């Protein structure tokens, strides 16, 4: 099992537990990171590496940056085809909810936002798992 995929699964499980406990701020954060790590697994499974992209400093990226992930999954049909277009387009929204949850103390995360975040992350991670399973002989 891919350690990055295990991480995505664990973060998704955390998001689901936090949602059940009414901890919506933490739910949104963990849901985003579950989807983020699932996207990394997918991108690397397709042979993509951070150095294929220009990073924030204007040089080839040395790690997976959030902006690279959120922009690429929506723009690359190989990725959005696996994640499904609606989920791929919502990854940026998930990221923005994570920023709100982690850094904007005066803003609240609603029940609907937490549920939607978890649902999108579950779809993303599940779709990546299905794709990887279909690729195995």
**Average pLDDT:** 94
What is the name of the CATH topology? Four Helix Bundle (Hemerythrin (Met), subunit A)
What fraction of residues sit in β-strands? under 5%
Radius of gyration: 15 Å
User: Number of DSSP helices?
Assistant: 6
Main structural class: mainly alpha
Broad shape:
globular
SSE string: HHHHHH
CATH architecture: Up-down Bundle
Stretches with pLDDT under 50, minimum 5 residues: none
What is the total domain count?
1
Provide the helix percentage.
over 70%
What's the CATH H-level superfamily name?
Nucleotidyltransferases  domain 2
How many strands, which pairing sense, and closed or not: the largest β-sheet? none
Cα separation of the termini: 15 Å
Beta strand count: 0
State the CATH class.
Mainly Alpha
How would you portray this structure in words?
The protein has 137 residues and is mainly α. The protein has one domain: Four Helix Bundle (Hemerythrin (Met), subunit A), CATH 1.20.120.330. It is built from six helices and no strands. It is globular and about 40 Å long. The two termini are 15 Å apart.
